[in-house]
Amino acid sequence: MFPAEEYDDRRARLAEELGFLGVDLAVLTYETDLFYFSGTCQAGYLFLHRSGRAWLAARRGALRARFETFLPVEEFRDPAGLLAAVRRHAPDAPRRIGFGFDLVRHEQALHFRALFPEAEPVDLGVVLRRSRLRKSRREHEYIRLAARQADGALKTAASLLRPDQTELELSIRIEAYLRRKGHPGLIRLREAGAVATMGFAAAGSSGLLPPERAVVWTGPGLAPAAPYGPGDRPFAVGEPVFLQYFGSCAGYLAMACRTFSLGPPAAEASWAYEAMRQVLGRLERELGPGERTGRLFEIALRAARLFGYEEYFLGLGGGPIWPLGHGLGLEADEPPLFAPGERETLAPGMVVAVAPRVILPGLGTIGLGNTYLITADGWERLTETPDEWRVVPIE
């Protein structure tokens, strides 16, 4: 997917961080990290020495890994074989070993503790998450294609929305469209144990349910054991239908959300949507390199307050319960986070989703959101669906 030089540059930047932290060896186990630094998800471990040397070790999947990566792939069958593979590339015993502790399994940590009993474990979770903040031009192109999918999903929804159709029935047809366009059907979240679907349509009261995850709202779902994706509520004439869908091209994501209705909506819903459009417009005037995400959140909250929606902005009474926006890339919950107190500064190359919305009692979720590429002089909006509330005619 990327030239060898791009992977080399990614690993060189991480190796530089290892030097700053005094870490001799990084051991990456999470699929997204494996892919980002090596080009394959197949191996069990990616090792990166502070010198920049890197190699993979696989108990299974070695054959496919060799087709997908430029790095050497070592096969092993047991702990002794893994230790021998490590020593072939790094004969000196590491004194400090880095892991992504936000996702490393307990048994994996114990495994390496037994292999290197004298080594001190170091958490690289924040370093690994921040390594993907700024995307390359090739990554931007994949995200642009994902944005076309997200736009197409909303266009498909507008053409298929019918009275008495359920959220699930509509979503099945939207997901079929996305799969035909190359969507793999997979949305990665880094949050431990997190699950996300390709998207959902939340009709009326379905949009009142609190989100399952801290960053990405995952929809009402069909049962308490699977509270993700669309529900089974039928669409009614005039009620708000909030749609959020992720496009995915080669694993890279873009997100778009809008609010539709079958026939004209209630005046209160229209006012709320127009307020959120104004909030988004205010944000777009400030969005760009050098701006702090926490400050942008405060700007949006002040704008919502002026329109009288502070209590329901990003939550159902009592204030926000999820962020205004977040980064996008290989995962749907990447930094930077647009939330109170966040001090991350936007920089060219970052890709972010921003979605102001309100949750109104008796109406549901109302709002809109887009994916943006931060540029040297501002931003480029990657999702192109018109911002207006879409009134779908009743046949």
Major pleated sheet? 6 strands, mixed
Distance between the termini: 45 Å
> From the structure provided, what is the oligomeric state, counting identical versus distinct chains?
single chain
Number of extended strands? 17
Going across the biggest sheet, name each strand in turn. 4-3-2-1-5-6
Give the overall silhouette: elongated
Category by helix and strand content: alpha+beta
Strand content: 15-25%
Order of helices and strands: HEHEEHEHEHEHHHEEEHHEEEEEEEE
Range of helix content:
25-40%
Q: What gyration radius follows from the Cα positions, in whole Å? A: 23 Å
Query: Spans of 5+ residues with little confidence (pLDDT < 50)?
Result: none
Count of alpha and pi helical runs: 10
Quote the average pLDDT.
Answer: 91
Describe this structure in words.
By secondary structure, the protein is of the alpha+beta class. The protein has helices spanning 4-21, 31-38, 62-68, 79-89, 106-115, 125-130, 137-160, 167-180, 267-286, 293-306; strands spanning 25-28, 45-49, 54-58, 73-75, 96-99, 120-123, 199-203, 241-249, 252-262, 325-327, 334-338, 351-354, 357-360, 364-367, 370-375, 378-381, 390-392. Helix 7 (137-160) crosses helix 8 and helix 9 (267-286) runs antiparallel to helix 10. The longest helix has 24 residues, at 137-160. The radius of gyration is 23 Å and the shape is elongated. The model has no long low-confidence stretch (mean pLDDT 91).
